[in-house]
Specification:
The structure is a homodimer. Chain A is an alpha/beta fold. Chain A folds into two domains: about 475 residues, Amino acid/polyamine transporter I, CATH 1.20.1740; about 130 residues, 3-Layer(aba) Sandwich (Rossmann fold), CATH 3.40.50.620. Helix content of chain A is about 65%, strand content about 5%. The first copy, chain A, has a five-stranded parallel beta sheet, sandwiched between helices. A three-stranded antiparallel beta sheet of chain A has the order 1-2-3. In chain A, helix 4 packs across helix 18 and helix 8 packs antiparallel against helix 16. The longest helix of chain A is centred in the last third of the chain and has 65 residues. The interface between A and B is large, with 128 and 128 residues. Strand 8 of chain A pairs antiparallel with strand 8 of chain B, so a sheet runs across the interface. Chains A, B: Pfam families: AA_permease_2. Chains A, B: Keywords: Membrane, Transmembrane, Transmembrane helix. Chains A, B: Its main location: membrane.
């Protein structure tokens, strides 16, 4: 598809060590072969689960959150829940409709960040980026906590050791992503479709039992009474509570923007397929959300914010030992029966989808990071793929922050959700405002009335989207600020400040190193090269370095040795003469057995004598295979190199000598280069502009 | 004194950061100026405190240990203590007499390790080295624990938080040595002489009060009764107990060997001065030891192994809250009066001398390490001075092991002493056996009857020394093995095994890289150099790298860029042409935005096409000042360099470009190079053989 690959790509099968193999196989099956999914684009049926596991999985906790907040005003407030569901549905349709515009107009995968940057300027873009980064952290924390709670409804042990299990899942996902497990379509497709199918079967079977068979289905909590924290709320307080419930329900919308970042990974026509997938996702999500709320009402699910205190059974509070199961599992229990096969399957699929949603953040984080790196808000090396170290830092940062939140909030998804959504809606709102600006700009230039009509329609959608999401953002901020939203805002500020500082640094450096237009103003032009080969003993590495140095035909060439041990120096000189090595050997004294300082001083002196000369220091270097071997070799060379770099007019050359043991490290390095960066699938291959490609070919043929 | 210094030595004043300045000033005064003590050799009056703070300070705990062990058989056993003191004195004289031979015959500073290696072979030498390394760890642990106990007799808070304070002192000493505080003569002289003077005043004043004034001086514990753990010990059991008490008393001998490692630091005549200092030290130590034991008997000091259980006051056990003060402080209290000025001074001086003794180990450890490194038992870089990193590892290892012991043994000097001494006497015994061999070898060649007589006398001394110290070693092993000596033996084995493994590695590598005698058997000789300058953008670093590369006159030269971003690549090419850069630019495609892999493949291809060519990869490198800046630059270059080193037939050249911020790092590096390696004072400057020096001068003049 894309011409001019790097020459000969060795498709080695991923070398997975035995140790980490087992959990991976358990979690993701055998689909590990390096089938280079990155080279195959995603069809809609695969793209849907890959990108939508996050928003779809959020129906596992969003309905429950709505009921939880309503319960503050007592069970009677539950009858507001359909209205809240309607509001969420309207919001979902608005957001999906808006984002269908986004993916059509900005298909490059830059998502909200690109839209905001292009239309509202870099500050808005950076705000969006900060919001999304925080959002990724929270996606991990919330999804895993909720997954643990869902798994706990089937396996009580898990919920009894909630924090421990949640942290264990974070660690597992982190290790998987550090080792470079590639997202695979199958991996996402199976649990996601099982989950979706399970929820739909549940809704259908529930409707059938309720409406046709006229069964009474009762949730396990149906008999409990709720002691309202505020009796008979009315007026402003009631509105505030409803708005809070709505804010919580908006958790169902998280992850919608993922598709807009993943357009390049879709099959052609990319934008159209992405837009269709968005619509599909929205449809599925609202149906599931409403279905679960409806079933919860029918089966009389009772939930409370502080279940041990506010839930009563026969007038007795349930006590702090009581574990409140998620709505979805309570409903499943009512519909399918406790411990039934379908109940277990649904619980497992729910947990799995939630963990996959968390994994989505592990992929989205570096993806966004690479885009930010391109704009120099993050270290450059994040931009290129396969830099394991750079990605690792990002992954560890993400996991560390998520684990911290999980521990602080006791892996309680309800408390974590208070922090969530702020970031999402900041990004939604700014992106939609950006789209409005986008249309305004285009409308100013467009003359074709047909296209204008289309644009005006799109602008209307985005305007409504901007207005609605902005309103929700305000509602979320107002209703949740003290409940934890401030933590998310603080996180955003930290990201924003860090990225601004990095960008400022890069700008300063770029200015400093900018090439002058007139080539001659760069002080004195170098005229001659004085080469120095550092010698400690005569052995193969030294001989090789000498041979290479002679080839370089520098203006002068000498060997330099430091006299640390007089006996050794004497032996060196004798052997030098005996072998008839033609390069002159110079010996520097070092009464304090230092190596670095005499060499640095010598080089500085050379430069002082003839400032226009360049000094080339050639260092024979051992290449060993293990880190502990590294401790035993090259340490002086390393230190010396570090110091030489600060000396102006010097070039430092390493002539490596590969010891036998270096084979081990070579293999390790090769394996590392086969590493799959997280987010590779979502990013899709690089698309090259036609012109550059052609020019490139010309260039290559001319030179090659 | 030593000719041919490194050219121009900048004597920058040590830049000590504000933060760590305060504790240092408190602990060691202002004597920090970089007055290059290493260049001035030590007169006897300074050498004595520098080398003898360890053995002299051990009289602070050795007498108490004797009483402690005797107390097992009840207070009646205390009357054996003078006899034990006599045995310790005889042993001390033997050891001092023996070591006076050592310093005369082996003045190079190799100490026991050198004597054992030369005369008994490398395995014996390595055993001695292992023993000494363990000994250093224990010196730190025991001295600091004892110092804390002595300080605690004046400042109760300290002894109430014993472990914490001991670890704090270890951390402080470690930081001081990591930063490179130089041992200074004054630093050692003042507290050591105050301590010695204090003890002598105490003995004299005690004798005066006791014999002339006929005062009754009573230690604070004089009224306590001891409940013997074994009533009426007799026969073998009693002998065993006395031997154990003697073993504990032998703690007074630790550190005697330090002088034999420090001969090069003495003023000339080095050996004679060292021998005199040894005699002085021995004389002072035994006088103080006997004086303290005598005063303890007169003032009726009562000590027990488990004071809370075995000490009674009016028939009631003292209970676990009772803190047993060291003998020296109890005696001082009896002689000077509790809380008196002299009492406080002596307590402070004792603690300080003990901490200095611990610091001695921080200096001796790297000193021994450097000798071992010379023989390739430890990483090479320990041999050269000023390698901060190498020394740091050693210091941290020493401190970590000592802190571990302190924590495990609750900073209880009595329990730690059980581990001590084994190492010392292993080293004593092997060294003395080695000396006997030494004399045998020399006697076989020597004809002069005068010299022969002298040698025979020396051999007799060393033979007696070997016999006596060997006997003590057996006694110590037998009486203390189960009390903890096994831990010390285990430590020795670990050091021995590690050093053997390192030596084996170096030997294997040396064999692998040994230069062949016939110069032509090293596969294919290189014929041409193909130079590649890596380019990402046109800026000053790139231009500099291109200019330098052109100077090198390699056979072919091209610039290489990786197409990660088509737009950037296009801009690069346009600017390349616009500027009329004569070096041809080659662009490699990288559909996955990798950098390393395409370059490695390209280089490998070049090598495949013409295997006799050498590829020179020239990388423009930014030099920045702070570690966080480093994260933002050069990461791709670093990774690439790492991979290229594994590719045969490649040389990797860095062309550094110093950014403005690199000034900070430059200063830091310079400061680091001014760093004083611990042990520098003890080691003395390198002595060069006459011949090598002359040859050197000739060489330098010929080339220079």
């Amino acid at each position: 598809m894309v011409g001019g690959r790097a020459p000969i790509r060795t498709l080695t099968i991923l070398c997975v060590s035995k140790l980490t193999d087992v959990p991976k196989r358990i979690l993701i099956g055998r689909a590990l072969r390096s089938d280079r999914l990155g080279e195959t684009l995603l069809p809609k049926r695969i793209a849907l689960p890959v990108f939508a596991s996050d928003p779809l999985s959020s129906v596992a906790y969003a309905p429950g959150e709505v009921l939880l907040v309503l319960s503050i005003a007592g069970v009677s407030a539950y009858h507001f829940s359909p209205w809240i569901a309607v509001a969420v549905v309207v919001l979902m349709f608005t957001v999906v409709a808006s984002y269908r515009q986004n993916v059509r107009e900005y298909p490059s995968g830059g998502g909200d960040y690109e839209v905001a940057t292009t239309n509202l300027g870099p500050k808005a873009g950076l705000t969006v980026a900060s919001a999304l980064l925080v959002d990724y952290v929270l996606t991990v924390a919330v999804s895993i906590s909720s997954g643990i709670e869902n798994l706990g409804s089937a396996v009580p042990f898990v919920v009894e050791h909630k924090v421990l299990c949640a942290v264990a899942v974070i660690v597992l996902l982190t290790l998987m992503n550090l080792r470079g497990v590639k997202e695979s379509g199958k991996l996402f497709a199976i649990p996601t479709y099982v989950f979706v199918a399970g929820v739909f079967i549940m809704i259908a079977w529930g409707a059938f039992r309720g409406l046709v068979l006229d069964d009474t289905m009762r949730a396990p909590t149906a008999d409990y009474e709720i002691k309202p924290e505020h009796q008979g709320l009315a007026g402003f307080a009631l509105v505030f509570l409803l708005l809070r419930a709505f804010s919580s329900g908006c958790a169902a919308l998280t992850g919608v923007e993922a598709i807009s970042n993943g357009v390049p990974a879709f099959r052609k026509p990319k934008s159209k397929n992405a837009a269709t997938t968005l619509a599909l996702m929205g449809g599925l999500a609202v149906t599931m959300f409403c279905g679960i709320i409806a079933l919860a009402m029918i089966t009389k699910v009772r939930m409370a914010e502080v279940p041990g205190k506010d839930l009563f059974h026969n007038g007795v509070p349930l006590g702090s030992d009581y574990v409140q199961n998620p709505v979805i599992s309570q409903v499943a229990e009512a519909v399918f029966g406790h411990g039934s096969f379908l109940f277990m399957i649904l619980a497992a699929a729910t947990a799995l989808v939630l963990f996959l949603a968390a994994n989505t953040a592990y992929n989205g984080f570096p993806l966004l990071g690479s885009i930010l790196a391109q704009d120099r808000y993050l270290p450059r090396q994040l931009h290129t793929r396969g830099d394991r170290l750079a990605f690792s830092n990002g992954i560890v940062l993400l996991a560390g922050a998520a684990a911290l939140l999980v521990v602080i909030y006791g892996a309680d998804s309800t408390r974590l959700i208070q922090l969530y959504i702020v970031g999402v809606f900041v990004s939604f709102t700014l992106s939609q405002i950006g789209m409005v600006r986008h249309w305004n700009r285009h409308l100013a230039k467009e003359k074709d009335p047909n296209k204008r009509r289309h644009m005006i329609r799109s602008r209307a959608i985005n305007t409504f989207g901007a207005f609605f999401t902005g309103l929700v953002l305000v509602v979320v901020l107002v209703t949740k600020f003290t409940h934890g939203a401030w933590v998310a805002l603080l996180g955003m500020c930290i990201f924003y400040a860090t990225m601004t500082a990095i960008r400022r640094h890069y700008d300063r450096v770029a200015e400093e190193i900018a090439a002058p237009e007139t080539p001659n103003d760069d002080s004195v032009r170098p005229s001659r090269v004085h080469s120095i080969v550092l010698v400690s003993k005569i052995h193969r590495p030294t001989l090789r370095a000498l041979a290479y140095a002679k080839l370089m035909r520098s203006h002068t060439l000498e060997a330099l040795s430091i006299n640390v041990d007089p006996a050794e120096t004497k032996a060196l000189k004798e052997e030098w003469e005996r072998r008839g090595i033609t390069v002159p050997l110079k010996v520097l004294d070092s009464p304090y057995r230092e190596i670095t300082r005499p060499i640095i001083e010598y080089v500085k002196n050379l430069r002082r004598e003839s400032p226009r000369d360049v000094v080339s220091v050639i260092i024979p270097e051992y290449v060993v295979g293990h880190w502990y071997e590294h401790l035993l070799h090259n340490q002086s060379a390393l230190r010396l190199k570090g110091r030489l770099l600060f000396t102006p007019g010097v070039m430092v050359t390493s002539v490596p000598y590969q010891l036998d043991s270096s084979e081990a490290a070579k293999k390790r390095a090769r394996r590392r280069s086969e590493w799959n960066a997280p987010g590779a699938v979502r990013r899709g291959p690089v698309e090259k502009p036609r012109r550059a490609k052609e020019q490139n070919k010309k260039e290559t043929s001319r030179k090659g």
